[in-house]
Amino acid sequence: MPEAYRNPRDSYTFYSGGVPAGVKWLLIINLGVFVVTYLATASGYGSFFNDFSLWPRAVISIPALWQLVTYLFLHDPRGFGHILFNMLALWMIGSELERGWGTRLFLKFYFICGIGAGICVVVANLLFGNIDARTIGSSGAIYGLLLAYGVLYPDRIILFSFLFPIKAKYFVMILGAIAFLGSIGASGGAVSHVAHLGGMLIGLVYLLVYIKRPRTAVGFRRSFEDWRRAWQRRRAKKKFEVYMRRQGSDRTDRWTN
């Protein structure tokens, strides 16, 4: 049984050992594409990558459905903060999830959250009347991973802003509240928060579906079985306490009679 399932409460999200294959290749591809776009932008050829960003007008009219995937691997070459946060979260959170789920299920969940977030962005742009706004970045998929981590490991301690220890469930609540409040409005900045919120909502729906059918995924089955056993123990304990109270009452009645 992976370490993530043996001790889910009392450690931080930093793990020893190698990086799992899925996370490793996502890191390599994202960082590689970032270097290429940085060099291309510095050389005046950055517009080449416009067709790979998420452009709602193109998605609807062409339809450029590939953009729902390719936008996940593009990050703003004018700064390092965006890709730095996403890749650190991918390494810290994604590595543990992949160890528990396996590479295939992890990558499936990652792209479902990312593509689902992209669809939410397209819909939001249509509603806000801003179909020419372009979106890039893997934040939708990353926020889906954060949501899954908060659901499956609610009491695991992570480092908020990489400095302050906080339980994963509270960390996810804070991020969800920020994304929700930021999504209120019609500005371009609001649309980026829609991607965050969309990734979390898609991830939550996916988790709930698989928790209802636990045999389809090893990681979800273990989480569900742990919850079921704990519920059965609580129920048995209550029945035993009721039984003992009744026995005590019967003995008292026999002695007083």
Structure description:
This protein is mostly helical. The protein has a single domain (3-212), classed as Up-down Bundle (Rhomboid-like fold), CATH 1.20.1540. Helix content is 69%, strand content 3%. The protein is built from ten helices and two strands. A two-stranded antiparallel sheet has the order 1-2. A hairpin with a 3-residue loop joins strand 1 and strand 2. It is elongated and about 85 Å long.
Total helical segments: 10
User: Level of helix content?
Assistant: 55-70%
Silhouette: elongated
Q: Give the end-to-end Cα distance, rounded to a whole number of Å.
A: 57 Å
What is the typical, i.e. mean, pLDDT? 79
Query: Major sheet, described briefly?
Result: 2 strands, antiparallel
Using the coordinates shown, work out and report the CATH topology.
Answer: Rhomboid-like fold
Number of strands: 2
SSE pattern, N- to C-terminal: HHHHHHHEEHHH
Q: How does CATH name the architecture?
A: Up-down Bundle
Given as residue ranges, the uncertain stretches (5+ residues, pLDDT < 50) are 1-16, 186-190, 213-218, 251-257
Estimated radius of gyration: 23 Å
